[in-house]
């Protein structure tokens, strides 16, 4: 699902295969991703190659990347709302798929007249297969699983209650048979919402949502050998409790008012390591390295939107969002105006424009672009202020041939402040000795560009062409000598063509081709002598201190990796109807085996020179999948 | 929606697609070599100028050329040295004189030694490498004092504490570096037996030093090392005392039984006031060394004040404090 969003204009992917969304020059943490209204803080399985959303139960996905209504807030770049199915109220359904590495199953149906349920799960089983096929007594591997549960109850025609639960974990483990060594790396989300909706009358209705969200990452390592006994535990994570209420009032068909509040209590745990070492004969070492104590914060927002259709051609949405973020005795207050308007031009062209002031009091610290589970969610504090962004958009759109075709053109400009980057030399380590606030720099960024989308939604052949031309820069006083530098995913060109053609009533073929300008990264450009300064030998006998060698990196993100392009092909045989079908899907990812760069590795040769090569991960990868529903 | 039944005809319709996919898998899927050599960026060599501006000591400047990161060569060996450069020193903008190439293949001069409080510019010109300059001002060491005191009971490793007091100047950002050495000796009426000058590893709980140098894993509020750099952020413009715990260690003197006195230990504390360039170089150099081989670490550019080239020409002013203790 997230991979599909990455094909839309203005949305870019990070490294190959990863789920992170880079929307209009923003970072993945600037996207608010909601699953049935609950925020998800890590949307990746398998280090980013699979998203946490079970495609069998996703009912609707809505991406907002500009012109944000006032009801949205807390993140700078986009809102992705994922709604799952509510459960079939009329009949029982069983749907599933069997794949080479994972399978999934969904069951849904009615409970009485007014209640429905949905239960879905999936799990990978590579670890089980490897264990079964291994000749050694292997007890190690990797797996992930997801469970989604939903319960809907209709009390009356005007009252409904919905409960939604998601839990999913990734686990990488390796255990020695004799128990001498254990290593476990795990991370996962737990989210839950309880939503009540009530219709007060023809013109007034409302909803209230209680939500819980938790993301936790942990490492457990233990060794019990003759020489050494140690145990290491690392934990980091974020936990939210939230309450949100909306009230919608429609005084006339041309006028609607929407208002509400959103309260969230965050608890951040930026990382704590417990380490115990009983190595003899030295004294036992038992220590907890928790430079950053858990941080609690309250995020409170009030908003109001006024949606007015002034004439048949002109309508506006004006809004205001007031936010207070309270943390460690510090208050950050903000008023965020939102404006969007649409004007219908002659010949059915629509002209759209918007302005939004966005505000983000939580941040994700990351050393990599991969979306590793080690990425750390942290709060704004007295020393680290919330991120802010101003975004303007202007665009036009039109549908053709009875809405079978659609074309959209949009330009945007975004200015971001208080962005965070790790400072020079900062690195994630389990036993970090420095507080995260001491390892980051704040700066600003800006992005501007133009996006084009041409889409065909009906007919035997459907699909779209999308193109984005964009520039994204960052500027930090303490980085790159204070000069602006390209954002890592400053991609000048991003083009996607995707098409599905129905060959027969049963058979369809699909193809997707994507092209992206190369990723920017920092490479060393020179090596040179650097002395050991100070009163060393020089004090004693006047001898000049010895030299070492250091590297100069030149401009930050000044080097470009190779351009990225890839073709995916698929063939689907599907027979039956939506209420009961069988489908066989075969295809190939990266069909012409492009070696797209995933990361860059440098080694030092014997003659002192660095040698570099880009490593690509995925060759042509075939897939075979069987899906069913009955 | 139309309902369809599966039939072999469906497969035959898609036969070209199936064959196409199979062909791609055979051709593409067999290539498991997933690396591509990097197109290394080109590099034009630049002048590298390194040296210290230390009051009371002769000028000594090292001039070399940089090597492309992806090109062969060792910057620290003699092949990178530049021996045909013109090196000129300016004090407060006034030309002082030229430094000449010496037997160490470095540029030096005994005349016009640097003085505290003065600003110096080193200009280096070399054929094909252009002209570069580096400028720094020599700081002044503030009033310092050193005393010793016994450590608290119960510490079985550290025997003594050196207490350094710095009267930090106000109105400026000040940077310091300390290093401790010791020399043990016994004196009699005609001679002195000495063990020679050796480095001392000290431990301190001073917050300024811990913030700069990092802390011990086993004891979060302590730093241990032979030297330390720190700033006056936490004590700017005030008198600040730093307690350095030091061990006496086993003192072996050849003629233990001779002499007319108990053996003695003399501690040497070298306290340097650093220029900002010297501090920034020291800070980034240390960071570079710590993270050089960590692929997950953010890259570190070591600070340079050489305009148009690389390297560091940084000023320091060092005072040596001594404290003597008798080992009874």
Number of strands of chain A: 40
> What is the element string of chain B, with H for helices and E for strands?
HHEEEEEEEEEEEEEEHEEEEHEE
Oligomer: heterodimer
What radius of gyration of chain B results from the CA coordinates?
30 Å
Share of helical residues of chain B:
10-25%
Strand content of chain A: over 45%
Low-confidence stretches of chain B: none
The largest sheet of chain A, given as strand count, sense and whether it forms a barrel, is:
22 strands, antiparallel, barrel
Helix content of chain A: under 10%
What can you see in these coordinates?
- The complex is a heterodimer of chains A (630) and B (328).
- Chain A is an all-beta fold and 630 residues long.
- Helix content of chain A is 3%, strand content 63%.
- Chain A is built from three helices and 40 strands.
- Chain A has a 22-stranded antiparallel barrel.
- The longest helix of chain A is centred in the N-terminal third of the chain and has 8 residues, at 126-133.
- The radius of gyration of chain A is 27 Å and the shape is globular.
- The two termini of chain A are 23 Å apart.
- The model of chain A is unreliable at 537-543 (pLDDT under 50).
- In chain B, strands 2, 3, 5, 6, 7, 8, 9, 12, 13, 16, 18, 19 and 20 form a 13-stranded mixed β-sheet that branches. In chain B, strands 10-11-17 form a three-stranded antiparallel β-sheet, with no helix packed on it.
- Chain B is mainly beta and 328 residues long.
- In chain B, 34% of the residues are buried.
- Chain B has helices at 8-13, 15-29, 207-213, 276-291, and strands at residues 35-37, 47-53, 59-65, 67-68, 86-91, 94-101, 107-109, 119-126, 130-137, 144-150, 160-167, 175-187, 192-199, 202-204, 223-225, 227-231, 239-246, 264-274, 306-307, 310-326.
- The longest helix of chain B has 16 residues, at 276-291.
- At the A-B interface, strand 18, strand 33, helix 3, strand 34 and strand 36 of A face helix 1, helix 2, strand 1, strand 2 and strand 3 of B.
- Strand 33 of chain A pairs antiparallel with strand 4 (67-68) of chain B, so a sheet runs across the interface.
């Amino acid at each position: 699902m997230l991979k599909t969003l990455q094909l839309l204009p203005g949305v870019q992917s990070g490294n190959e295969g990863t789920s992170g969304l880079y929307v209009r020059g923003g970072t993945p943490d600037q996207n608010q991703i909601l699953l049935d209204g609950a925020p998800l803080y890590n949307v990746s399985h398998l280090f980013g190659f699979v998203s946490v959303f079970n495609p069998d139960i996703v009912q609707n996905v809505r991406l907002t990347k500009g012109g944000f209504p006032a009801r949205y807030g807390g993140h700078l770049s986009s809102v992705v709302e994922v709604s799952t199915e509510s459960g079939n109220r009329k009949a029982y359904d069983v749907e599933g798929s069997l794949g080479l590495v994972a399978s999934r199953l969904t069951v849904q149906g009615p409970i009485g007249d007014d209640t429905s349920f949905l239960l879905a799960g999936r799990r990978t089983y590579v670890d089980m297969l490897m264990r079964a096929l291994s000749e050694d007594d292997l007890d190690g591997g990797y797996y992930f699983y997801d469970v989604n549960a939903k319960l809907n109850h209709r009390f009356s025609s005007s009252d409904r209650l919905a409960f939604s639960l998601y839990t999913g974990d990734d686990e990488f483990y390796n255990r020695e048979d004799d128990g001498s060594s254990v290593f476990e790396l795990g991370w996962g989300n737990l989210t839950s919402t309880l939503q009540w909706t009530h219709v007060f009358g023809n013109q007034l209705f409302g909803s209230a949502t209680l939500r819980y969200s938790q993301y936790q990452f942990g490492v457990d390592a233990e060794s019990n050998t003759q020489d050494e006994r140690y145990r290491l535990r690392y934990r980091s994570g974020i936990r939210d409790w939230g309450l949100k209420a909306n009230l919608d009032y429609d005084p006339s068909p041309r006028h609607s008012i929407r208002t509400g509040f959103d309260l969230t209590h965050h608890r951040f745990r930026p990382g704590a390591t417990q380490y115990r070492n009983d190595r003899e004969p030295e004294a036992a070492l038992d220590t907890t390295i928790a430079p950053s104590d858990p941080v609690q914060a309250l995020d409170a927002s009030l908003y109001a939107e006024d949606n007015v259709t002034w004439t048949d051609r002109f309508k506006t949405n004006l809004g205001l969002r007031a936010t207070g973020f309270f943390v460690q005795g510090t208050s950050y207050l903000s008023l965020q105006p939102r404006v969007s308007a649409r004007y219908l031009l002659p010949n059915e062209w629509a002209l759209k424009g918007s302005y939004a002031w966005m505000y983000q009091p939580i941040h994700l610290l990351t050393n990599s672009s991969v979306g590793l589970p080690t990425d750390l969610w942290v709060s704004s504090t007295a020393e680290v202020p919330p991120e802010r962004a101003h975004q303007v958009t202007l665009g036009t759109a039109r549908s053709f041939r009875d809405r079978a075709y659609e074309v959209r053109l949009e330009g945007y400009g975004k200015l971001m402040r208080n962005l965070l980057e790790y400072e020079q030399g900062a690195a994630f380590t389990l036993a970090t000795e420095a507080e995260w606030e001491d390892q980051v720099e704040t700066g600003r960024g800006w992005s501007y560009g133009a996006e084009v989308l041409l889409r065909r939604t009906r007919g035997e052949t459907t699909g779209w062409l999308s193109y984005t031309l964009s520039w994204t820069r960052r500027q930090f006083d303490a980085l790159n000598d204070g000069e602006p530098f390209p954002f890592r995913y400053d991609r000048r060109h991003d083009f996607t063509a995707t098409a599905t053609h129905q060959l027969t009533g049963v058979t369809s073929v699909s193809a997707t081709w994507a092209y992206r300008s190369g990723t920017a990264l920092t490479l060393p450009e020179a090596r040179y002598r650097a002395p050991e300064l100070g009163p060393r030998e020089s004090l004693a006998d006047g001898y000049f201190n010895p030299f070492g060698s250091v590297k100069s990196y030149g401009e930050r993100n000044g080097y470009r990796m190779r351009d990225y392009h890839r073709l995916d092909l698929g063939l689907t045989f599907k027979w039956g109807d939506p209420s009961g079908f069988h489908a066989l899907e075969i295809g190939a990812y990266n069909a012409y085996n492009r070696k797209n760069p995933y990361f860059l590795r440098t080694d030092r040769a014997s003659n002192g020179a660095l040698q570099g090569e880009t490593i690509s991960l995925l060759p042509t990868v075939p897939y075979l999948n069987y899906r069913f529903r009955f | 929606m139309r309902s369809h039944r599966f039939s072999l005809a469906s497969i035959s319709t898609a036969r070209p697609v199936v064959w196409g996919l199979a062909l791609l898998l055979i051709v593409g899927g067999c290539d498991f070599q997933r690396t591509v050599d990097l197109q290394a960026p080109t590099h034009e060599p630049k002048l590298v100028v390194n040296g210290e501006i230390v009051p009371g000591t002769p000028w000594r400047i090292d001039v070399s050329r940089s090597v492309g990161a992806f090109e062969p060569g060792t910057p620290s060996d003699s092949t990178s040295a530049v021996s045909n450069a013109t090196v000129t020193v300016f004090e407060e903008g006034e030309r002082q004189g030229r430094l000449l190439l010496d037997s160490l293949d470095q540029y030096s001069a005994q005349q016009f030694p640097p003085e505290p409080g003065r600003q110096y510019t080193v200009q280096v010109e070399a054929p094909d490498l252009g002209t570069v300059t580096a400028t720094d001002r020599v700081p002044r060491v503030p009033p310092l004092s050193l005393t010793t005191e016994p450590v608290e009971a119960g510490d079985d490793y550290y025997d003594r504490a050196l207490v350094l007091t710095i009267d930090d100047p106000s109105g400026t950002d000040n940077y310091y570096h300390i290093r401790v050495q010791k020399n043990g000796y016994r004196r009699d009426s005609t001679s002195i037996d000495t063990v020679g000058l050796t480095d001392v590893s000290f431990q301190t709980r001073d917050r300024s030093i811990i913030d700069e140098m990092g802390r011990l894993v086993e004891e979060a509020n302590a730093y241990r090392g032979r030297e330390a750099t720190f700033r006056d952020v936490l004590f700017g413009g005030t008198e600040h005392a730093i307690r350095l715990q030091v061990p006496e260690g086993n003192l072996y003197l050849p003629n233990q039984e001779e002499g007319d006195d108990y053996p003695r230990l003399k501690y040497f504390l070298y306290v340097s006031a650093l220029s900002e360039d010297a501090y920034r170089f020291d800070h980034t150099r240390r960071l570079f060394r710590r993270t050089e081989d960590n692929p997950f670490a953010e890259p570190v550019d070591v600070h340079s004040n050489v305009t148009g080239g690389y390297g560091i020409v940084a000023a320091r002013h060092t005072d040596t404090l001594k404290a003597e203790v008798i080992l009874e």
